[in-house]
Write a structure and sequence with these properties.
The chain has 83 residues and is an all-alpha fold. The chain has helices at 5-37, 40-60, 65-82.
């Protein structure tokens, strides 16, 4: 356990951020899963919202920008082939 006041605060902030980042990541993964399970018409409608969620994860540093690009590319490809 941390002894200094600043390191105690840092531990609290890290714990809070970890919970928040896990929430955002899990919410986005669920949205991706729901989009893949939808019919082709709904997939096309959901793609912009899911892509925006992925971009926000990359902007916040939860996932790497290249992983975000790969995810969006795979989703767009799956939407285009489903039609």
């Amino acid at each position: 356990m941390a002894n200094h006041t600043a390191t105690k605060k840092h531990s609290r902030k890290t714990a809070t951020r970890t919970v928040r980042n896990k929430y955002y990541g899990k919410t986005t993964r669920n949205a991706i899963r729901d989009m893949k399970a939808a019919d082709p018409k709904e997939m096309g409608e959901k793609l912009p919202k899911v892509a925006a969620m992925i971009d926000k994860l990359a902007k916040r540093g939860i996932i790497h920008k290249n992983k975000a690009a790969n995810l969006k590319s795979k989703l767009a490809k799956s939407v285009n082939t489903a039609k």
